[in-house]
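Notes from hallway chat w/ T.B., transcribed later so I don't forget. T.B. wanted the structure written out for a chain they're using in a teaching module, and asked if we could keep both sequence and structure tokens in one place. Agreed to drop them here.
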Amino acid sequence: MKTGGRGKAGGVKLANGPDEAYEKASQILGMDIKGHTVHTVLIAQAVDIAAEYYLSFLLDRANRTFLSICSVQGGMEIEEVAHTSPDAVARIPVSPLTGVDTAEAAEIIAAGRIPAEAAEGAALLAERLWAMFTDEDATLVEVNPMALTEDGQVLAVDGKVTLDDNAAFRQEHARFADTSNTDPIEARANEKHLNYVKLDGEVGIIGAWSCPPWTWWPTRASRSAASSPPTSSTSAAARPPRSWPTAWRSSSPTRACATCS
């Protein structure tokens, strides 16, 4: 199930033996989790967890760099931790030129206040996680929880990965596609390399890029009381080519999103 919040929704259950695993898998199959229907269940070996931590790497679009987030408080949503215990969340910029080596990984783990008994294993996991992040052209890799087991191992018990569609030409990301919960029209649009967004309305929008239609539509709607909300938006390209002059790409008086900047 490619969405977060599986545990809170009841999509993660512990079982003692094959019979109980079958029973609980039957309960999970068919569940609706954030609009996604469960069609398959992954069965994994249970882990005897002594402590739970958090670690991630992501693309920081606002600052145009990479960012690592590490926290001694894992096993829950990091947004909740940042809200209730902001000092427990460390945000460490990562240079795309130097990346994460052994020393940098140790600094990230230390900043996240991971205890000494887990620090070495967590640093090794951070190095490997960064390698996967860059090798697969991801925009997010998240391990939550990063667990310290009773026998002293540090394991990635659960995680989340977001891949950059712009790297599809050099990656095999299609092998991870889950079409079971994809809108049929969206699937057809993807086959033709179009960005399609389904909305609740009556008027379709077709634009050259993602931002101009969304910038234009509120202006159009405000001038006509009879204007209907959009039913869908389709764009033929995600952003202007990087070969175009930067001044031209940034000259729009209304910057709808960071993608076009």
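Follow-up for T.B.: The two ends are 33 Å apart (CA to CA). Might be a good example for the class.
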